[in-house]
Design a protein that fits this description.
The structure holds 2 protein chains of 2 kinds. Chain A starts with 15 loop residues before the first helix and ends in a 9-residue tail after the last helix. Chain A is an all-alpha fold. In chain A, helix 2 packs parallel to helix 4, helix 8 packs antiparallel against helix 10 and helix 12 packs antiparallel against helix 13. Chain A contains 17 helices and no strands. In chain B, 32% of the residues lie in helices and 31% in strands. Chain B has 2 helices and 9 strands; from the N terminus they run H-H-E-E-E-E-E-E-E-E-E. Chain B has a 5-stranded mixed β-sheet with strand order 3-9-8-5-6, with no helix packed on it. Chain B has a 4-stranded mixed β-sheet with strand order 2-1-4-7, with no helix packed on it. Chain B starts with a helix and ends with a strand. Classes of the chains: A mainly alpha, B alpha+beta. Chains A and B meet through helix 2, helix 9, helix 12, helix 13 and helix 14 of A and helix 1, helix 2, strand 5, strand 6 and strand 7 of B. The complex binds protoporphyrin IX containing FE and copper (II) ion. Copper (II) ion binds next to loops of chain B.
Amino acid sequence: MSAISIEADAFAPATAADLRVARRIMWTYISTGLAIFFLMMLLGIAMRAEQAGWVTFDPGWFYALLSLHGVGMITAMAIAGLGTLWYLVRRETPLDPRIAYLAYGFFVAGALCVIIAVFPGKFGSLWTMLYPLPFVGTYWPSWATGVWLVGNALVMTGFMVWCAQILGALIARFGGILGMLGIGYVFNIRGYEEAHREPPSPQMFAAAITAIDGIIGSTFGLAAGIGMLVHWIDPSVAIDPLWAKNLIYQFGHTFANLTMYMAVAGVYVGLPLCTKREYHTSKPLAIAWWGTLLFVIIAYFHHLYMDFAQAETVQFIGEIASYLAAIPVVVVTVFSGAMLVHRSGMRWSLGSMFLYAGMIGWVVGGTAAVLDATIPINLDLHNTLWVPGHFHTYLLQGVLLFTMGWVFVTLEQRSATITSLAMRWLIGGTIFGGAAMFLLSFYIAGANGVPRRYAVEPAPGPELATVATIGALILLAGIIIAAIEALRLARLPKAQEAAA
Amino acid sequence: MSGLLVLELFLAIASAAVIVMLAVALYGSNRPAPQSEVSAKGYAIRRYWFWTILIVAAIGFAISIPRFPYGSAQTIGKHYTIVAQQYSFAAPPTIPADRPVVFDVTSRDVNHGFAIYDPDGKLVAQVQAMPDYINHLPFTFHTRGHYTVRCLEYCGIAHAAMQGGFDVR
Ligand code: HEM
Ligand SMILES: [Cu+2]
């Protein structure tokens, strides 16, 4: 594994004890993230069943659940991804574990506040809480708004702590920002080769981009959150609604999008383990990541395409940025990932299957996103169910699969065992089949103009919601079986030559 | 571009992507080859692949620009004021057909959406309704009949029931 080697280095390599601590941190983060994911999935199914007319509850509760589901899911995926990245960075450079636990503490405290705002607070302004909504014509008590805002601020603070630690460590490790981002490498490949120096590994790009854009995004999010908290305390302080929208979507889009760039590290490290091949940093990979670094933070303008008051130049930049943030990294990573698997003789374990399927989900969800990021198309799809169609593909069949793939690859390597063929078919069939039903219903409904975020949908919404609910239940079954299988693998004795 | 057309385009690209990805993974999988051999071929293909994607994206981008929907206070056409509030729209009862019109859309309280559905229930255009701002949506109606307006930005407990409408004559 020369791509992750740390031998020729000024830093003391991580000892076995260091790595044990790092692995414990990773598993703490991952299991917390996946547990939150599981609970949020149950809320998601309840909402889809309500839209299908299987159950009825008051729309106020529908929106309260939607608020919790939205913020909970994104945070869950982020926590799992940040834990993985922390461990991967720790393999290459020293990190203080106490800071990882500090960030974790912020996440847990934030999650508790958000849960209290919803149960019993019934807060229902959604995780995008567009100003002045959380204060005007509300059906929940004012304290719930305050607790919700504080909870979100805590999550952002935890994220900032994580980003600051990783950024500091990477800058030290690679001798500055230019080294960390592979700029020195791209402009001096010959020099690197002559000096037998390796550029930062692909997963270090994922960590660096997450840390930089994470700090920028959290700053915007905290600005919006603190502004609203001030307004909550003193309502005479007014905020400009268009500015608030920009700040909130800057944070929301960046945070949600970064979960993918965190999880993809699982592909960079996991697929080479499955294929017994090497995933190297190349010039296109580095340049593609620069595109992501620059454009993820402004791609959010596509959330404001239908705000015609926003300057038209900004809309134009939004369309370019959306293309350039999404396309290069997907093209490079997925192409190289597919090349890694091609004729490698890789066995289709659950781990490799999830990682590979995740790349397909990333491409498919990304395609739906790029289409919708095209302004004349957005005119017909903005805020329809197309949007949850796209991001559920991206998150459920991309980010989640990368996370599950990483978990299974690690467990399979550790125990030197893979799941039986019948079990793999059962898990793959239920997860992919169920997800396909769940996701296609969103796309078809959206293309027919059915709005998103409707507790009660116009036709053909409810019929499609029925199909979606059945799909989601099949998916739920698959996830439960996969979880049981993961626990079984985790309890097997450790094999002699354990990697990861 | 109509939603259903986009759906067809999307399903075509998505199925192609799935098929290609599966083919790459499965084709020749019983005849393993060293990584260097696969990479040599892969890098050659990758160059064309990059350029193809880049050119397709650039063409899509170029086609989209003249179709931007943005209007302003000066946009030519008869202007109609639309005021949204929790949970209704104040809109004129009739709009002329076959003539350019501009909707000047705003909100009295929180963010709302102003989305126009044609008599067949197809979403034909939309814009946000924001407090403190006026958004100008130009449009020309060619089909006569009753159009429904729905709110397309979450605005509170009765968001899903927030509707209006007008006749195009
Ligand atoms: C089986 C799994 C899931 C189910 C059944 C589910 C269900 C739903 C439903 C019914 C909605 C509301 C759609 C609407 O009418 O607007 C929704 C929204 C959402 N979901 Fe999921 N979901 C699942 C997985 C996920 C995952 C894995 C993530 C993220 C990692 C996620 C993130 C979100 C977000 C951000 C929203 C938007 C919230 C908002 O509109 O403010 N969901 N989901
Ligand atoms: Cu509304």
